[in-house]
Amino acid sequence: TIKVWNLLTGEEEKTLLGHQSSVTSAAVFDEGCKAISASRDKTLIIWNLQTGNASITLRGHEHWVRMVTVFNMGHKAISASYDNTLLIWNLQTGILEQRLVGHNSRVNAVTVFDEGKKAISASSDNTILVWNLHTGEAEQRLYGHEESVNAVAVFDKGKKAISASSD
Predict the structure, then answer these.
(1) Over the stretch 110-161, which tens digit does the pLDDT of each residue have?
(2) For the chain, where are the E strands, in sequence order?
């Protein structure tokens, strides 16, 4: 499930039902009116947070969807999956726009930076990839971890990244 909470009262406002397995990630966009969730059921769902209804179910991954991040002012999302891919979605139409292939194992995390022009992904193949979102190509592969890379973040205006690993 996904729950919407009122932080002023501590009360649950809504429970969103629709996924057939565990929900692994969620992000809010459209000035708090919509959300997108990722699940082990291999789907993403776009939600209307006013009504609590699912508006679009996105299908394209062949395995669990581990993480979803919204970018381009809420017009696009990128999802990371255990099928070793990242998918870029148009949130207005629900159309799959791009498939990013380059990791040799599950993709655990993704962050978009440089004003939506680049993404960085962390994988169980012990690497980090820096992607050009215009071309869909991996521009850089970062090595150094001895085990699965589980999280990644960008800082210093896109000049540096920090990664977290099982090692």
Answers:
(1) 999 999 999 999 999 999 999 999 999 999 999 999 999 999 999 999 999 9
(2) 2-6, 11-16, 23-29, 34-39, 43-48, 53-59, 65-71, 76-81, 85-90, 96-101, 107-113, 118-123, 128-132, 137-142, 149-155, 160-165
